[in-house]
Amino acid sequence: MKDKSMPCLMRKVKTPRQIYLIKRRTDKLTTILLQIGLLVAFIGIWELAAKLEWIDPFIMSCPSRIVKILSTLEMQELFTHIAYTLLECIVGFLVASGLGILIAILLWRFVKLRRVLDPYIVVLNALPKIALGPMIIIWVGAGAQAIVVMTVLICIIVTVISMLNAFMSVDEGKILLMRSMGAGKLQILFKLIIPANIPAIVNMLKINVGLAWVGTIMGEYLVSTAGLGYLIIYGKQVFKMDLVMASTVILCVLATLMYLAVAGIEKITKKRYHIDD
Fold first, then answer.
1. What global pTM score does this model have?
2. What would you measure as the largest C-alpha separation in the chain, in angstroms?
3. Residues ≥6 apart with Cβ < 8 Å to 237
4. Which residues contact 203 (CB under 8 A, 6 or more apart)?
5. How many other β-carbons are positioned within 10 Å of the β-carbon of residue 201?
6. What pLDDT is stored for residue 22 in this prediction?
7. Nearest-CA neighbor of 212 among 164, 116, 148?
């Protein structure tokens, strides 16, 4: 007599791949829950510390005071400031990333040029960009264009250095193999160098997200008539620390959203190029 329970038992046995996928999903879910829990705990401790006066709520503010100050602002005015800062940041981010990759490609292509410019790139990377602030205002004017230029200057040298190092790290044997098969420089670039460095490009974009926000706010500190940096300066001048902290929180949210957008691009490229985590 056949045991009818055997097929059911066999179906319940999970393959090693299924076990791996379940473990991977569980790890991701656990990480997300811990991240949310950490954020909730931070907000709760911050609020409690202000209520019990462990910290000075006038100087350090607290979540309830931030919500209150945001509710008193006109939504149209607030969104105008957010739009100004976000637009400046995105434009600077895109220009710096695209131009930086292009310069890195040129330096990879022309060895002599790379050797000549290498010490200058190092010096420019070490130069405090804020020192060029007054000159930038004179060069391009006191407006949004100066803020975008500051953002580009903050991001572009790091982009060039990181991408050039990534291009130079491609296996020389693969390059020689393509050359032996008659491939030209452009074919090597688009068939080998760039596809091999998709993860490096995505990582560079992640780094540039943070640098772009630093450059944008730094530019708004120097010259701005609108934007979140302007609100921070205004709040500091009139001792509205709640406004300063509220603007800072909005910056954190916008930076997080921009980072998540880049992370979404990373997932798409991993599927497109079959890149493992």
1. 0.84
2. 94
3. none
4. 162
5. 18
6. 82
7. 148
pLDDT per residue as tens digits for the range 127-172: 888 888 888 888 887 778 989 999 999 999 999 999 999 999 888 8
46 burial via Cβ count (<10 Å: 0-12, 13-18, 19+): buried
Distance from CA of residue 259 to its chain's centroid? Answer: 5
Distance CA 150, CA 140 (A): 11
Torsion sign over Cα 50, 75, 37, 86? negative
What's residue 99's pLDDT?
95
Cβ contact 189:239 at 8 Å: no
- Positive or negative, the CA dihedral 102, 105, 106, 107 is positive
pLDDT of the residue at 216: 92
The residue-averaged pLDDT of 49-55 equals 89
d(CA 77, CA 235): 15
pLDDT of residue 191: 87
Residues in the chain: 277
Nearest CA to 50 out of 67, 29, 75 is that of 67
Position 214 pLDDT exceeds 80: yes
Q: Which residue has the tokens 């509710």?
A: 71
Dihedral sign, Cα of residue 69, residue 73, residue 76, residue 82:
negative
Q: Tell me the Cα Rg of the chain.
A: 25
Percent of the chain with pLDDT over 90: 36
Beta carbons of 233 and 239 less than 8 angstroms apart: no
